[in-house]
Amino acid sequence: MTVVEQYLSRQIVAARVGVCVRTLERWEKRGIGPAPIRVGPRLVRYRAAEVDAWMAAPEAEDR
């Protein structure tokens, strides 16, 4: 059986985390949060599993 990874847009990740998209973009530049995946020159996606793991980490309560 093949496992299909789910990818999320910036808008969806921002909504899940509870921040605006601009904050998420600033975090990307600072290396904060789940690692973004560049799909194109202006298209970024995140692995859903990485976002969930990052949010479940103990440090997530400090955000």
UniProtKB/TrEMBL annotation:
<protein>
    <submittedName>
        <fullName>Putative DNA-binding transcriptional regulator AlpA</fullName>
    </submittedName>
</protein>
<dbReference type="Pfam" id="PF12728">
    <property type="entry name" value="HTH_17"/>
</dbReference>
<dbReference type="InterPro" id="IPR041657">
    <property type="entry name" value="HTH_17"/>
</dbReference>
<keyword id="KW-0238">DNA-binding</keyword>
<dbReference type="InterPro" id="IPR009061">
    <property type="entry name" value="DNA-bd_dom_put_sf"/>
</dbReference>
<dbReference type="GO" id="GO:0003677">
    <property type="term" value="F:DNA binding"/>
</dbReference>
<feature type="domain" description="Helix-turn-helix">
    <location>
        <begin position="12"/>
        <end position="56"/>
    </location>
</feature>
<dbReference type="InterPro" id="IPR036388">
    <property type="entry name" value="WH-like_DNA-bd_sf"/>
</dbReference>
